[in-house]
Amino acid sequence: MAQRPIFIPENSGYPFVKTVDIEFIWSPGMAKSQAQKSIRSLHEAAAKAGFPHLLEISSKAEDSLGVALSAFNLNITSNNKRMSVECAFQGSKVFERGGPYTDLYDASSLDAKRYDRIRNSGEIIGFDFMGVKFPTIPITLFYDWLYITALQQNKKLSEGILAYDGFTDIAFNPQKSWNCQAKSAALYLALHATGKIEQVISDADSYLNLAMGTQKPHTGGVQMGFGFE
Predict the structure, then answer these.
(1) Quick count: other Cβ atoms within 10 Å of Cβ 83?
(2) With 70 as the cut, is the pLDDT of residue 223 above it?
(3) What is the pLDDT of residue 219?
(4) DSSP assignment string, 65-111
(5) Extended strands (E) in the chain
(6) What average pLDDT score do residues 110-138 get?
(7) pLDDT in tens, 65-107
């Protein structure tokens, strides 16, 4: 048995996403077919728990929409430059001893994720995406913004997820990482339903305050400022 979270949009307000841990039968192995068995098991268990309409978002998904929504495949465009969300995220990291490594904007998603200098430049102190600067707290702030912005730019995909009540990512393990494309998709649905999506994409202060809920924003010494086009 294994346990993974499912992510459900919450339209009532902050934090906009409900996380529900689901126990299911895990199919071990590196093959894609094994991952898909695990996905089916997770979704079957979630349905029994009252969450029947879920979409797996990952390169392992059986649904082509879920594959297209993977951060490795979903593209974002800024200043006439198009790249995957993964490349935008990795290439925008600012470290104690380097970055942002903007050459990663032109790399493959896999190469960007495995880039050596990302592991050898010290702690992450912020993010800078073509002049759009973000702090490191809240911890998923920048990744979520990239993902929901990319979704908003891809109307066919953003309309496609409206048919679902929640999302999964079989590869995401909350014990090992923070950012999750399935959680970002749920956030998009909640912000879309509450009419806030355009506001958080275009206004830095509004987005940060929304992401922090009632807490006082912490910029970590990194100036917020959108120069997004």
Answers:
(1) 21
(2) no
(3) 41
(4) HHHHTSTTT-EEEETTEEEEHHHHHHHTEEETTB---GGGGGS-HHH
(5) 2-9, 17-24, 54-56, 75-78, 81-84, 93-95, 124-129, 132-134, 166-168
(6) 92
(7) 999 999 999 999 999 999 999 999 999 999 999 999 999 999 9
CATH classification of 2-212, choosing from 3.40.30, 2.60.40, 1.10.357, 1.10.150? 1.10.357
Residue 183 CA to residue 179 CA, distance in Å, equals 8
- CA neighbor of 225 nearest in space, from 122, 145, 139: 145
Which tokens go with 26? 């895990």
Cα–Cα dist 26/124, whole Å: 33
CA distances from 23 to 58, 68, 165, 185 (A): 19, 26, 19, 22
| Residue the block writes with tokens 């048995």 | 1
pTM for this one?
Answer: 0.90
**What are the domain boundaries of the chain?**
2-212
Please list, in sequence order, all residues whose beta carbon lies within 8 angstroms of the beta carbon of residue 163, skipping any fewer than 6 positions away.
Answer: 53
Nearest one of 96, 88, 60 to 172, comparing CA atoms: 60
CA distance 129 to 102: 8
| Rounded CA Rg of the chain | 17
Do 142 and 132 meet the contact criterion of CB atoms below 8 Å apart?
no
